[in-house]
Write a structure and sequence with these properties.
By secondary structure, this protein is mainly alpha-helical. It has 3 helices and 2 strands. It has one domain. A hairpin with a 6-residue loop joins strand 1 and strand 2.
Length: 145
């Protein structure tokens, strides 16, 4: 009976490990979806800003307040996108180049984009508990966009 108990214990441990990894993959997938949504909304805001600038130039009307609101909204969205991108990088064990801002493998010595030597410090791996839940239920439309 000792061998069977050991096999069952090992099987339970393996199932727990696989479950945790699957949870991390799901969390990264949620972060990637949030990132795509943010990028899409930023693009949409840029298009609206372009239309406002065009209308202002062609009609002579003053849309300064509208432009300022759109610029503030785009700036906030870009900040949120940077936060989500950093969470994805940490959960994927990537490090950010201090020179160009691109993400590289944690084992990389030089940046893949600019060639700069990367910091010797390793970022800690982000635990699943530290990630924010980016499901649609946790945001109102005005929060994300």
């Amino acid at each position: 009976m000792g061998i069977i108990e050991d096999v069952l214990l090992n099987a339970r441990t393996a199932v727990d490990t696989v479950g945790k990894k699957a949870g991390q993959v799901i969390d990264v997938s949620k972060l990637r979806l949030a990132s795509a949504d943010l990028r899409s909304e930023i693009s949409r805001k840029y298009q609206i800003l372009g239309r406002v600038v065009f209308e202002e130039a062609t009609t002579g009307k003053d849309y300064t307040k509208n432009k300022e609101e759109l610029i503030e909204s785009i700036t906030e969205l870009k900040g949120e996108l940077e936060s989500v991108t950093e969470m994805i990088a940490k959960s994927s064990q990537k490090v950010k180049c201090e020179v160009c801002g691109s993400y590289n493998s944690k084992n990389a010595v030089f940046c893949n984009k600019c060639g700069e030597k990367l910091s010797a410090e390793e970022d800690e791996h982000m635990d699943t508990d530290d990630m924010i839940d980016f499901t649609e239920d946790n945001f109102e439309d005005d929060d994300l966009f």
